[in-house]
Amino acid sequence: MIAGYILRRLAFLPLTLLLVAFATFIVLRLTGNPVDIFLDINRTPEQVEALTKRLHLDQPLPVQFLIFLGDLLHGDFGESLQFTGSAAVVVWERVGATLQLAGTALALAVVLGVLGGLICAVWRDRAADAVISSIAIAGQSMPSFWLGLLLIEFFALQLRWLPTSGYGDLKHLVLPAVTLATILLPNFVLITRTAILELMGEQFVVTGRSKGMSRPRVLVTHILPNAINPVLSFLGIQLGHLMAGSIITETIFAWPGVGRLLINSISHRDVPVVEAAVFFIATAIALANLLVDVLQMLIDPRIRRA
Amino acid sequence: MKKRGWFGERFKIAVGGSLVALVVLAAIFAPLIAPWDPYQQDLMARLKPGFWSPNAVPGHLLGTDNYGRDLLSRLIYGSRLSILVGVSSMLLSALIGSVAGVIAGLRGGATEQAIMRFADAQMAFPDILLAILMVAALGGNALNLILVLGISRWMVYARIVFGLTRTLRQRPFVEAATLYGGGDGYIMRRHILPQVMPVLIVVATLQVAQMILQETALSFLGLGIPPPAATWGNILAEGSTRLFIAPWIANLAGLAIIALVWGVNMLGNGLREHYDPRMVGQ
Question: To probe the interface with A, which of B133, B147, B219 has the most A CB atoms within 10 Å?
């Protein structure tokens, strides 16, 4: 049954991706001619013609879109305009860096966020709750790029403990990962707190307590397993947020990932790379969402039946 | 429910509201209170720190930037664009979203499916990616930013209004109005919107904070209103390249952003508790 569900969801995937392809295509092709922007003032007519042909700009728009879709099916986004090699390969070479950053940040945010939310819920309305909740709410107002800059000022420029930017060993990962994790952390604290507080009023919790189970035991056996699902579905919603934060964090710390490549390619009008990068991000989010849904079904039989 | 202390809705509305009112007043009366023209350069007084430092130049309370422009004046003028873009894009997305949500809720069937599935599909696409693509294509100016941000968040309102409309549709007063021959537009104006308004006000207030953050993020990425325009995102982006010699530029712009966004968030949370005491626990 789960296999059937996965298959049905996978069948919807091409539809989502088709929408993404269409939106990217329209936005990038209908506005501004990449030939004008990419070639400099000393261009020759032969260069213009060659680039126009290479991007199929001499064809009518519907034909351009069909050619684009056909190439897409082969995983071919065309050659990058600012790097040598195909756009897909250019993007693919940076996927590792993005996954490393996003993965570390997500793990940090989930572990610390769930822990913080748990503390807030267990000691509700006490000092710990007030402090952690208030910080979380303030954190939601923090512009992520400013947080990154503050961390650079303090840990890289003042204390000189960590490099300001770049890519390489573990030292380079610390500041970007902390910045990106802090973008997500407040939300995870608040959602975990709410989820656990809601469960504390449930009948199976009251029953457990009235049977004489201790508070910690009820927490571990009844509340925590049930809190996994709301947190997981929230995680699914946050994936878009994670990628958005990753774009900004990579730009601040000169992290060689897909997000920075995307911003860089937009300013250079490297259309094939922009398309490939947007496509990669949208696919990654769609697949990750699917994974979250399947995980939820595996964990919670109630969802399987619904 | 436990009695809450001083950190209640009145406090939140008062503090958040005053903070927001202060920034709005500064934005409106910017020409009167800003000590300098925000675009006037003084290359002899570049990158001077503010009142906290012995190297301060008299007359520049918060120091100057790389072109010797007065930072305080630039921040005061910057509030204009942040508020303009934040509020206008909120109004646009609230308008699109509520109309779409009410129509989906009242009509049901294929209309509902079309509108709500489209909203779902857009939800799955990171809004900043859409905004980045559209600004990159259309170019960054205030009008485009408002359009882009407005379109990127309409689903938030559509989902909430849709849910509320669907439950309201079955209530006797709506059924009676339908029986008397009231059209969709009439029912929406007279019966649905007044009921949805409190929730809409709360969501809209909190969304203004999100919009302001998005706008500054886009400016920071070089996709907002291009320099030399005095926007908080631009000031922060310019300051970020001179962190070592003039950290106050980026920090003061960041402080301005966080103060306004925090104020809006406080106000929104206070309003939420005011309109719906049941939500306090959340």
Answer: B133
